[in-house]
Recover the amino acids of this structure.
């Protein structure tokens, strides 16, 4: 039971951190530390991965948009551990992490001006 809650969150956080690191490295004109990129990406990954898989802070958004894990591979909407759910968590986490890191980078560059 606890495993089915923790593992999706870890997947979302790690994929968000990876997405945040990639986007942060692509933004050459923004001076953000690696820790900031990873943490922003991880938080964005939790939000983005949760929205897509149907679990987490924006879980109902995935269901409203028809992007629940059940559409990707027959998984349950609460973020199960089948391949469709895992792919959804990784993709949503990476996109969410990259998006939040990009927003953070833009805000950081605007504050320095």
């Amino acid at each position: 039971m606890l495993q089915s809650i923790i593992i999706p969150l870890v997947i979302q956080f790690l994929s968000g951190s990876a997405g945040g690191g990639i986007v942060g490295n692509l933004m050459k004109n923004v001076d953000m530390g690696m820790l900031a990129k990873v943490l922003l990406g991880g938080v964005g990954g939790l939000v983005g991965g949760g929205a897509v898989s149907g679990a987490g802070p924006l879980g109902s958004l995935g269901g409203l948009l028809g992007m629940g894990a059940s559409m990707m591979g027959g998984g349950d909407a609460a973020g199960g551990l089948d391949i469709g759910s895992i792919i959804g968590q990784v993709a949503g986490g990476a996109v969410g992490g990259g998006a939040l890191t990009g927003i953070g980078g833009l805000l950081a560059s605007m504050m320095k001006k």
